[in-house]
Design a protein that fits this description.
about 140 residues, elongated
């Protein structure tokens, strides 16, 4: 079951990434991605994984140590939960970056690699977008 949930995690996020990267100007992309609820299926997977192993997860997150977190992430359930956590937050950050970039008029050809970087290395994609967005002031009204 854990492996199925692990595989399902990115499959549920992939269509939204495809819309933002491949069809950024399509009117339906903005409609779909405007809802923060797009991350809920991934959050549900995370919840199933964490609740199923709560006795191990709770101590690791409430009193984190490097060894404790490494042990948690070193298990199949912990790695799958960590993956779901990353995918959910990366998608949420990517969604914000996409919507903000559309409001600011950031070129889509610049945003595509930034969104790809966000999928692969979330915090670096966020940093790249934050560095780029200062060149495009927010449009008024």
């Amino acid at each position: 079951m854990t492996e199925v949930l692990f595989e399902l995690t990115f499959l549920l996020a992939a269509p939204f990434w495809a819309l933002m990267i491949l069809l950024p100007k399509w009117s339906w992309t903005t409609r779909v991605v405007s809802s923060p609820l797009i991350v809920l299926p991934i959050v549900a997977i995370y919840a199933v994984l964490v609740i199923g192993d709560f006795g191990t997860v709770w101590p690791a997150v409430t009193n984190p140590t490097l060894d404790g977190v490494a042990e948690l992430l070193g298990s199949p359930a912990g790695a799958a939960a960590g993956w779901a956590h990353m995918i959910a937050f990366d998608l949420f950050v990517g969604r914000w970056s996409y919507l903000d970039s559309r409001e600011r008029g950031v070129p889509v050809l610049l945003m595509a690699p930034i969104l790809l970087l966000t999928i692969l290395l979330g915090p670096l994609g966020l940093a790249a977008y934050l560095a780029v967005r200062v060149r495009w002031p927010q449009r008024l009204g």
